[in-house]
Amino acid sequence: MANSSKKIKEIGEDLLIKRITKNLTLGKDVMAGAGDDCAVIKSNDPQSYMLLKIDSVIEGIHYVKSTHPSAVGYKALSRAISDIAAMGGTPKHAMIGLSLRPNCNVSYVTSLYNGLSKASSPYNISIVGGETTNCSKNGTQSVTISLTGEVRKDLCCFRSKGRSGQSLFVTGKLGKSINGRHLSFTPRIEEAQWLTRNFKIRAMMDLSDGLASDLPRLAKSSNCGYSIDTNKIPRARGASIDEALCDGEDYELLFAISSKDCNKLKASWRKKFPSLTLTRIGKLSPKGTEDPDLEGGWQHF
Amino acid sequence: MANSSKKIKEIGEDLLIKRITKNLTLGKDVMAGAGDDCAVIKSNDPQSYMLLKIDSVIEGIHYVKSTHPSAVGYKALSRAISDIAAMGGTPKHAMIGLSLRPNCNVSYVTSLYNGLSKASSPYNISIVGGETTNCSKNGTQSVTISLTGEVRKDLCCFRSKGRSGQSLFVTGKLGKSINGRHLSFTPRIEEAQWLTRNFKIRAMMDLSDGLASDLPRLAKSSNCGYSIDTNKIPRARGASIDEALCDGEDYELLFAISSKDCNKLKASWRKKFPSLTLTRIGKLSPKGTEDPDLEGGWQHF
Question: What global pTM score does this model have?
């Protein structure tokens, strides 16, 4: 096999996943596998889908050694909840995989679980299982979350359901999450459920890698291009346009909606969520009309 | 909090789990959480439960650096399948968390996935998600499996459903799995489903830590003692009684059944599974009559 002696750090995660998933056989009950925010599975209930998500936070990447363990636990579970939100779903049951150094304090683990509880309790998520592994004395600690959810079939959002001409919106303000928001954000469960129940919204995702990475993914999945006005992107205090596009870890919602519903959406949103901004940043366009071409490499200026 | 400055290696995993789980709030839909082979959840289908499992294999503990990656993947998923079997269930959907060193070869990962496919395909398990994390250059690699399953409510087995006087059986032969069986075993899905459908068996578990550790767990969960004849324990070729009791990683079934059904069970089993032994090793007895007292420390002789 070509490239088989290459190291994973050389080919990167995207190509690795592509290489792996092309040989996997999926059952007919799998509506979406790897490639959307969650896997979507037909359940025994004809009205709803089951959602499945696995996600990890890693020391040195998503948090640092000095991050309070309660914040690590809160972030780890909230990221997975944000993926359930992106499908329009409700989170249900979590299992926790901890990879810890053997000299880790017991109080670190109990505090980490306090953070998990803080993230789970607003949604009545039950933590039903766990597994602790030893990453060795000099290894890198990590927290892996396996989370289930459910969503009404007719309200389930996929990245692939966008249509050319639809308007693109984002919730909240983007950029500079590293100043603290990346550890304390609120997953947009309530907002996503209100959106899908009150408007015909079927293409949505959460912004975890930054709009410049995530918008092209949604457009590509929907076989569309996009046209956005980068000056209109809602920026967190002190964030440049570049930072709002590229920093990542915003955990806000990006979604597409019929342009004729925009005014009604904006008015209803202001009443329902007065303290959270909702911004129309542009629209989906025919494939091949990406403007600006973020995927081709956002120009850092 | 007392003990909070202790290290996790000092208090051990059992006490750590106890410490963590006592503060968790479980929903009313959770029939069993941590403490059984799988978590058992009420589903939208009134006829069945959903099963959830998270489990890891760790380099240096469950396999060694030189173990073929295909065998690592096969073992990782088969262990979780064995836990689904122990509940009488059918495995459905898997998600895979890999923790790898950055200099790991791409071919290692594709081979590991070949092993996962080999384990999943006999049961049509769909691998619907994955996550790869970097355990750092000198870290310990691991594979974490999140697996769902389902089981008919009336056939679901719990560790807690044993009754004093019931006979105890084990499938297969125990001990010396380190000679190779721990990497190549077949999870007892077919056997477990046949057992629960044809006989009234409601207390079952899989033998992963060795009969000397696992039998006391089943008995304790069922509020029973036990009486076994250690000379009757079926031993793998070359295994001593001690090894059959304590080696672990057998991935065979241990279950309890009404003593009046023993003869019918033995005759039917021989016809259905002529190449796999089934052995009556003793019985459940009133609490406080553990004979021999394996939990108090099996005497290594």
Answer: 0.92
Spatial separation of the C-alpha atoms in residues A113 and A189, rounded to whole Å: 21
Angle subtended at Cα B111 by Cα B105 and Cα B116, rounded to the nearest 5 degrees: 130
Residues A97, A41 share a domain: yes
Give the C-alpha separation, A280 to A255, whole Å: 10
Same domain, B126 and B243: no
Contact list, A41 vs chain B (CB under 8 Å): 92-93, 128
Is the CB of residue B167 less than 8 Å from the CB of residue B285?
Answer: no
Nearest-by-Cβ selection for A107 from B4, B27, B34: B4
Q: Does A121 touch chain B (CB under 8 A)?
A: yes
| Alpha-helix runs per DSSP H in A22-96 | 69-86
Residue A1 lies in a domain: no
> How many domains, chain B?
2
A104 vs B7, B135, B140: nearest CB: B7
Q: Residue B22 burial (CB < 10 Å; 0-12/13-18/19+)?
A: exposed
Cβ contact B130–A54 (<8 Å): yes
* Most A CBs within 10 Å, among B146, B148, B150, to test the A interface: B146
**Residue type at A121 in one-letter notation:** S
Residue A300 placed within a domain:
no
Q: Kindly state whether residues B133 and B163 are assigned to the same domain.
A: no
Same domain, B119 and B175: no
A38 contacts on B by Cβ (under 8 Å): 129
**pLDDT score of B300 more than 60:** no
**How many whole angstroms separate alpha carbon A166 and alpha carbon A260?**
9
Residue of chain B whose Cα is closest to the Cα of A104: B7
The model's pLDDT over A234-288, given as tens digits with 9 standing for 90+, comes to 999 999 999 999 999 999 999 999 999 999 999 999 999 999 999 999 999 999 9
Q: Give the domain extent around A69.
A: 8-155
CATH of the domain at B198: 3.90.650.10
DSSP string, B239-269: --HHHHHHS-----EEEEE-GGGHHHHHHHH
Complex-level ipTM: 0.89
Contacts of B150 in chain A (CB under 8 A): 44
CB-based contact (8 Å) between B52 and chain A?
Answer: yes
Question: How far off is chain B from A276, nearest CA to CA, in Å?
Answer: 30
Q: Report the distance separating Cα B133 and Cα B136, nearest Å.
A: 9
Nearest alpha-carbon partner for B45 in B192, B124, B151: B151
